[in-house]
Amino acid sequence: MEVEILGSGTSMGVPIAGCDCRVCCSTDSKDKRLRTSALLKIDGTQILIDTSVDYRQQMLRANVKYLNAVIYTHHHVDHILGMDDLRSFNILNKTSIPLYGMQDTMDNIKRVFIYAFGENQSKSTIPRLDIHVIDKNCFQVSGIDITPIPLLHGRMPVFGYRVGAFAYCTDVSTIPESSFERLQDLEVLVLGALRHKPHPTHFSIEQAIEAAQRIGAKTTYFTHIAHSVMHQETEAQLPPDIHLAYDGLKLTF
């Protein structure tokens, strides 16, 4: 399995338009962060986690030619608004694309993209999608077992996902006790860690370190990182088994 971090940034990305802070002005490529998303490649099956606002740019940079499915963590705009561009794969590969997510996520995707799902569909090219509502139970994509990880993003229920010894949990402020049980014996964990200061709906870096150490994955990478976090400077302060993710990072295991 290979995991590629397509985007490691928060909802406004890094740099933020109009900002001249030292991170937004940094020349380090690891301080340039598209909106959060990841691609799983398993024996020829390619599964995308979230269609970020920067979806098209991410697909071009990673040279992705097809997708077998998209699994959604939740319906906030930075995680869904690239969905319309899935239609390029509909056209080129002559197939619809399955979407997986909790009921609330799917309901909101249908609301936002009503032209693709409504009775009076547009006559122009629209994405062709197959909706699959999931709950906390394990499901399969192309024979691959995927386990949802219930999380809280502030008061909002969201999903992380586990595939084999890998788990991806972005946009999280609380991990329920029962979900820690689903995160045992991991090789790699990707975990949301917004910034150094506390935030009401995201783990701070300090909180994420505490959660990561309790989970005990062999290696943890932080994602959904804000423009207040300088990559090299922060990386040097982290425990040896915890790192900052960055756009284009590839993990093979």
Provide tags for this entry.
alpha/beta, Metallo-beta-lactamase, Chain A, 8 helices, seven-stranded mixed sheet
Give a summary of the structure in a few sentences.
The chain has 253 residues and is of the alpha/beta class. It has helices at 55-62, 77-80, 87-93, 103-112, 114-117, 177-180, 205-215, 231-235; strands at residues 2-7, 37-42, 45-49, 69-71, 97-101, 129-133, 139-141, 144-153, 156-163, 166-169, 188-192, 219-223, 242-244, 250-252.
Molecular structure report:
With 253 residues, the protein is α/β, with parallel strands linked by helices. It has a single domain (2-247), classed as Metallo-beta-lactamase, Chain A. The chain has helices spanning 55-62, 77-80, 87-93, 103-112, 114-117, 177-180, 205-215, 231-235, and strands spanning 2-7, 37-42, 45-49, 69-71, 97-101, 129-133, 139-141, 144-153, 156-163, 166-169, 188-192, 219-223, 242-244, 250-252. The strands form two sheets. A seven-stranded mixed beta sheet has the order 6-5-4-3-2-1-14. Strands 7-8-9-10-11-12-13 form a seven-stranded mixed beta sheet. Strand 10, helix 6 and strand 11 form a beta-alpha-beta unit. The N and C termini lie close together (6 Å). The mean pLDDT is 96.
Mean pLDDT: 96
Uncertain segments are none
The number of helical elements comes to: 8
CATH class identity: Alpha Beta
Helix % is 10-25%
The sequence of SSEs as H and E is: EEEHEHHEHHEEEEEHEHEHEE
CATH topology descriptor: Metallo-beta-lactamase, Chain A
Distance between the termini: 6 Å
Q: How is the biggest beta sheet arranged?
A: 7 strands, mixed
- Helix- and strand-based class? alpha/beta
Can you count the beta strands?
A: 14
Rg from alpha-carbon coordinates: 17 Å
How many discrete domains?
Answer: 1
What is the name of the CATH superfamily?
A: Ribonuclease Z/Hydroxyacylglutathione hydrolase-like
Quaternary organisation: single chain
Instruction: Assign an overall shape.
Output: globular
Strand fraction equals 25-35%
Order of neighbouring strands in the sheet with most strands: 6-5-4-3-2-1-14
Assigned CATH architecture? 4-Layer Sandwich
